[in-house]
Amino acid sequence: MKTAVVLLSGGLDSATCLAWARDRGFECATLAFDYGQRHRVELGAAERVAKALGAREHRVVRIDLSAIGGSALTADIAVPKDGKSLDPTTAIPITYVPARNTVFLAVALGWAEVLGAADLVAGMNAVDYSGYPDCRPEFVRAFETLAALATRAGAEGTRFTVHTPLMALDKAGIIRLGVSLGVDYALTHSCYDPALDGRACGGCDSCRLRARGFREAGVPDPTRYLTTPEA
Length: 231
Hints:
The protein is α/β, with parallel strands linked by helices. The protein has one domain: HUPs (Rossmann fold, 3-Layer(aba) Sandwich). The chain contains seven helices and five strands; from the N terminus they run βαβαβαβααβαα. The protein has helices spanning 12-23, 41-52, 100-115, 137-150, 152-155, 171-180, 205-217, and strands at residues 3-7, 27-34, 57-62, 119-121, 161-163. A five-stranded parallel sheet has the order 3-2-1-4-5, with helices on both faces. α1 links the parallel β1 (3-7) and β2 (27-34). α1 (12-23) packs across α6 (171-180) and α6 (171-180) crosses α7 (205-217). The termini are far apart.
C-alpha cells in the first residue's frame, strides 16, 4: 500500500481529500498546521477527521505565520463579512495568507521524503473559492517541478505528484463526493472567524461558500452558525 501525505486543515475540502485518498488505496499520513490562525478551532476538527477516516498518523506542525501578518486570518485585521470578495472580478481578498500553500506543501514534501512517499494530497480548488493565487493548477504543477529539483529523492529519480482531486469541482460537487465516500461533515470546521464556543460566524466567505454548497448539493448542513448565511 502506497503512502500519501494529506494536508488536513479540518475543513470540508481537506476532509473530502482524505476520504478520496483512502478510497484510492493510499495509506494516509495527515498533516495540520498551527500557523497563528485566528480559527485554531480547526485543529481539533482535523484531529477528529483524521481519526474518523483512518489516518495512519496525524501530526500538527507549528509555523507562526502571524509573525509576518498580512492576512485577516493571522493579523489584527477584520475578517470581511459582506460577501463582496466572492465576486470573481474583485481583488484577492484580505483572507489570503501570504505564501501559505507554498509553505504547507514544502513541509508536506519534507515529510513525504522522510516517509518514502511520492504522493501529496491537497484541497486546492480553482472553481468555488475566494480567489487565492495558490489554489490554481499552475501553482500545483510548478510545485511538482520544484519538488523534483529541491529534494534528494527527486534527484535520485522519485517523481512527486500533488493530487488535487477537488480542483475542478464546485462546493456542491465536493460535498456530494464526500457524502459518497462516507465523510461526516459534522466533524469539520470551515469558519474564518468562529465564536469562542466554536460556532461558525455565518458571514465570512468560508461560511457563505459552505452553506451554499450544502444547499446546492441538497444535503443537510450540520454546521452550527451564529447567524444563518445569506443565500
